[in-house]
Amino acid sequence: MSDLARRDELAANLDAVRRRIEAAATAVGRDPDEVTLVAVTKFFPASDVRLLAELGVTDVGENRHQEAQDKAAACADLDLRWHFIGGLQSNKAAAVASYADVVESVDRRKLVAPLNRGAHERSHEIEVLLQVSLDPPGREGRAGADAEDLDDLARAVEEAGMLRLRGLMAVAPLGEDPSAAYDRLSRIRADFVAARPSADLLSAGMSADLEAAVKAGATHVRLGTAVLGPRPRN
Ligand SMILES: *Cc1c(COP(=O)(O)O)cnc(C)c1O
C-alpha cells in the first residue's frame, strides 16, 4: 500500500475511534478530552507511527522491549510519549526506562529498582502505572498485581526517587463481560485514589471494549486493531 493510501486508512480509523470515545464519554457525562488515545503500534512499522504522529496522535504503546526500543529510536525526532504496556522482565526493566515515558505494566516490587536505575541513567523521571489483575486468582499466565498488594507496590514506587506513580492499568479478562470486570476495576481504583489523589490515571479499554472502560472512568484507552487494522502476525 502506498504511504498516501495508508495515511488515508489511518486517518479514517482515527476519526472512527475518536467518535467512539466522544460518544462513550458524552453518554456518561464525561468530557471526551479526559480520555487519551494510546495507539498500540505493536507489529506495525515505524512508518505507521510517523503517519499517526502527523495525524495528531501523541501517545503510542508497545508491548515488547526489543521492538519498542527500535521503534522509539527510529521515531526519536517525533514528540511522542512512549507507553510500555507489555509483560516486563526485571532484567529488561532498566533498558525499557531508557526510552519509555510511561511504564504501565509494573506489577511487582522486583521491577522497581531496575526501572529506577534506568530512569537515573537517563536523568529522566518515568511515569508508572501499576497493573492490577482482574483475573480470577490462580489463572494461568495471569499478569498484574492482586488488588490487595497495590498499597505495598505503590509505596515502593513512591520511595524509589525517579519514578512517578500516576495510577493504575488493567486488561479485561478473556471470556468475561468487560463491563463486569471494569466495574471491579472502578472500585479498586476508587480505594487506590482515595489514598493517593495524584495517582488518578486509569489505563483500561482496548479496541473491542473501550466504551465499557470509558464508562468505568478510563483516562487512557489502548487501541491497536481499531486504529491500525488487524495485526500482521501475532
Ligand atoms: C495489544 C494490546 C492492546 C491493544 O489491543 P487491541 O485489541 O488491538 O486494541 C491493548 N493493551 C495491551 C496490554 C495490549 O497488549
TrEMBL record:
Keywords: Pyridoxal phosphate. The keyword Transcription regulation does not apply. The modification N6-(pyridoxal phosphate)lysine is found at K42. Belongs to the pyridoxal phosphate-binding protein YggS/PROSC family. It comes from the Bacteria. This is Pyridoxal phosphate homeostasis protein. InterPro entries: Ala_racemase_N, PLP-binding_barrel, PyrdxlP_homeostasis. Residues 13-232 form the Alanine racemase N-terminal domain. Pyridoxal 5'-phosphate (PLP)-binding protein, which is involved in PLP homeostasis. The lineage of its organism: Bacteria, Bacillati, Actinomycetota, Actinomycetes, Propionibacteriales. Its cofactor is pyridoxal 5'-phosphate. Pfam families: Ala_racemase_N. One of its GO terms (molecular function) is pyridoxal phosphate binding.
